[in-house]
Amino acid sequence: xxxxxxxxxxxxxxxxxxxxxxxxxxxxxxxxxxxxxxxxxxxxxxxxxxxxxxxxxxxxxxxxxxxxxxxxxxxxxxxxxxxxxxxxxxxxxxxxxxxxxxxxxxxxxxxxxxxxxxxxxxxxxxxxxxxxxxxxxxxxxxxxxxxxxxxxxxxxxxxxxxxxxxxxxxxxxxxxxxxxxxxxxxxxxxxxxxxxxxxxxxxxxxxxxxxxxxxxxxxxxxxxxxxxxxxxxxxxxxxxxxxxxxxxxxxxxxxxxxxxxxxxxxxxxxxxxxxxxxxxxxxxxxxxxxxxxxxxxxxxxxxxxxxxxxxxxxxxxxxxxxxxxxxxxxxxxxxxxxxxxxxxxxxxxxxxxxxxxxxxxxxxxxxxxxxxxxxxxxxxx
Amino acid sequence: xxxxxxxxxxxxxxxxxxxxxxxxxxxxxxxxxxxxxxxxxxxxxxxxxxxxxxxxxxxxxxxxxxxxxxxxxxxxxxxxxxxxxxxxxxxxxxxxxxxxxxxxxxxxxxxxxxxxxxxxxxxxxxxxxxxxxxxxxxxxxxxxxxxxxxxxxxxxxxxxxxxxxxxxxxxxxxxxxxxxxxxxxxxxxxxxxxxxxxxxxxxxxxxxxxxxxxxxxxxxxxxxxxxxxxxxxxxxxxxxxxxxxxxxxxxxxxxxxxxxxxxxxxxxxxxxxxxxxxxxxxxxxxxxxxxxxxxxxxxxxxxxxxxxxxxxxxxxxxxxxxxxxxxxxxxxxxxxxxxxxxxxxxxxxxxxxxxxxxxxxxxxxxxxxxxxxxxxxxxx
Lengths: 381, 380
Description:
The complex is a heterodimer.
Chain A: H1 11-28, H2 32-38, H3 43-51, H4 70-80, H5 86-104, H6 107-118, E1 124-127, E2 143-147, E3 150-161, E4 168-174, E5 183-189, E6 195-200, E7 211-222, E8 226-227, H7 233-239, H8 241-268, H9 270-274, H10 278-307, H11 313-337, H12 349-359, H13 366-380
Parallel strand pairs in A: 1-4
Antiparallel strand pairs in A: 2-3, 3-7, 4-5, 5-8, 6-7
Chain B: H1 6-33, H2 38-47, H3 65-76, H4 80-100, H5 103-114, E1 120-123, E2 139-143, E3 146-157, E4 164-170, E5 178-184, E6 190-195, E7 206-217, E8 221-222, H6 229-264, E9 266-267, E10 270-271, H7 276-304, H8 311-335, H9 337-340, H10 346-355, H11 363-374
Helix pairs in contact in B: 1-2, 1-3, 3-6, 3-7, 4-5, 4-6, 6-7, 6-8, 6-10, 7-8, 8-10, 8-11
């Protein structure tokens, strides 16, 4: 039995969710365990979601998107995030690249790249982090030096999601001394000479999604590949923060939904019959169910405001913080309640737990979200 | 902040040196491959650690729960899963035999277990008897000068490669009719039915065991028939005190690794250590760790002085196991992206720590034991 949530879904959202869930059961679930174990990202699965129009629901129709509401988009992310979250994360990240293109790209760039990304033919990657600039995002050092009709890029990016699998990389570089005003964004395609994929990281969770270094060695990028003006880079990155954070929050509610549904099943089955802590377990999961409903409502509200073009910075940070914390807590308790069964690899729940931890770190750690919210509160005073 | 005798300082020194040389360098690789650190076991044998609580005449070190807890802590700071295998061998198998078996059984099994020639394990948990330990269904039926064992055991640490198993089985109709047998892996009818894959503690092999008309000589019964509950509970209490040392070691590793990291890593122009929210996490972890040490050292000393209160072990394990997982998660968060990577050890610390909230009795069972020691829960 699926859990009930309110308000009931609008027709367009429920249609896209059903499509996503069907694809999830057909293509992601059967090999979820081995994909995670082998750290395998299955490109064909991503493309299936693309063919069904599920990757770019909120992108305008003229560029091949679904022209639908953000609610539909986050609904799909949530369904896919039942796991492994590699697939939902790759969709969320590709949307950051499409979002950057829509906000800052010129018509030619949009025409060149958006149809390939919306259809799932191409996978997008978004590269901001460097070894010395993580939480301090504007501290990046990858150097782009102006030369005739373009730039030469030298340096290393790290922790780039979908690195190696992606075809188009949105890369933030340094073009001057000013910490935030001299950052410039470039669209780098996979086979550009001088650009290569470095070390692939091994991780606690999120294992079916590649995370790599990007290495630029005197790599020439023509001016047509610059996104926005020189110095627009930080604004490009900031423009996608809200989308990214809500996307991660939706991955969190996706894991939380799967975990709570699993617990529901366990409590109603043999485990519940024999469990002497049944009441205590039910108490905990009732609380999580209430929190899940609340975060889902926040996502719905934020999506609607975003559709209207309103500023949702505060909501986006709140959703990222609450959604990822919820996923972590509920999956931790689920592992625990299942006892030794909970730590066995064959049980998907230990993967929920490992995946959830990533959500507290990526797209700005939860500590950074709290800093953002604290600063916003200062402004309100 | 703790004062140790010269002997204890020496023990800590030699165990720390062993851990640094033979456990730490292999921890990452064995975790990845789900391997087993045989060399470390040989080195532990050389120090007499494999029979830490056993008499010297069997090759043991003749020490108590306190020293065993210290050893667990120091070893686990380097590699928790190898330490868990060490605990299954030295406490669950060797100590159990030493505490309850007959002289001839001890003569036969202890020297080779303590020299490291044999690997020991204990088999209690079954597919249908986890938290409800006395619900076990493995049966032993006497036929002539043998017992015939039938049933299955699961989540058995050292199961895949163990030579000697202390096995609990039912020998009568009541829940309390539990007997203990020493079973050699080469006995007919003993089988390792499955090696299990785990989230953490991966260098400590775990297995499902099957007993199919397994023939055990009658002389391998420990003590009398239907008389195992008291030594089973006593050994569980010791297990819970000493296993808490593993949580202490993991937390110590989390604290030292993340403390070093936050001083070396700078963001926004200053080391992470200068941010209050980072200081808060580090200080909490340090205060918890010393509180956990104080609790475990005191409980271990009470156990050694003959106090059999089962809430001693329950309190130690409940407090330190939760502390360990929390420290692991906090260490990951302090390292941020780096913390999530296998290249850094803290995600392993967290995965290893989680098992200790489940194995040797879950947190929930620990709470019940503590509650029973405080409240009169007899039905009126």
